[in-house]
Design brief:
alpha/beta, elongated, Rossmann fold, DNA polymerase, domain 1, 10 helices, 6-stranded parallel sheet
């Protein structure tokens, strides 16, 4: 088996539980704004519609069709339009409230800290994330993930987004790593797995939902603890 020296992790959906944390924040905002009293939609419908719209907008962002401000300006108006909430009943600052609240949530995937505690003395650990500096920093500190990682590369700082090879090159330059002795762990087949593979880096596809696919991956795991047995 190849000897790895550096392990690069994606953050959202890989270590930090995006769905769990966002859902918790949305349910709190639903109660705070008394959206249930308007009789238009349930908490569950808000959460489901949020993820549908959010995934659509992030896909557009990652394909360079929209910018950061477009994502934030369009997200909740699109959600409320789909849910049939009239403009005059929509909370005016809910996007800002969501951005402030969600990153403070501390849910991580099962065994995340246990895995990182095991890896930390043996490997240099780093983050490569298609996210924004302020938000990702808050997520990592809130969930007590920040102290494990030597280099944290965000797409905002890099100016490139996974799967662009330039963000992987920047990560290697900053960390002093070599692609042949590095491993990328992530949940996104295009951004994390395809990007790392095309760059010449081995990959671990984190697939807790058992998503069916035909991609060529170096390793595939359904739980983070499985990574220990691969190294």
């Amino acid at each position: 088996m190849k000897t790895y020296k550096h392990i690069f992790f994606d953050l959202d959906h890989t270590l930090w539980d995006y769905e769990g944390n966002a859902g918790e924040a949305l349910r709190e905002l639903y109660d705070h704004h008394r959206l249930g009293e308007k009789g238009m939609f349930s908490k569950a419908e808000l959460v489901t519609t949020f993820f549908e719209v959010n995934d659509m907008l992030w896909d557009a962002y990652n394909h360079h069709r929209i910018q950061r401000k477009d994502l934030r300006e369009r997200r909740f108006p699109t959600i409320f339009k789909r849910l049939g909430l009239p403009i005059e009943l929509r909370p005016k600052n809910i996007e800002l409230e969501y951005i402030a609240l969600s990153p403070t949530k501390d849910k991580v995937f099962d065994h995340a800290h246990e895995l990182l505690d095991y890896l930390n003395p043996k490997y240099d650990l780093h983050i490569i994330t298609n996210g924004f500096d302020d938000i990702q920093g808050t997520k990592m500190s809130s969930s007590r993930l920040d102290h494990y990682f030597k280099v944290i590369i965000t797409s905002e700082t890099a100016g490139f987004r996974k799967p662009d090879p330039r963000i992987f090159q920047l990560a290697l330059d900053k960390s002093g790593a070599e692609a042949g002795h590095s491993l990328m762990v992530g949940d996104n087949l295009r951004a994390d797995i395809g990007g790392a593979r095309d760059f010449g880096m081995d990959q671990v596809f984190f697939n807790p939902g058992r998503k069916s696919h035909t991609e060529r991956v170096t390793y595939e795991i359904r739980g983070l603890k499985e990574l220990i047995s691969l190294l």
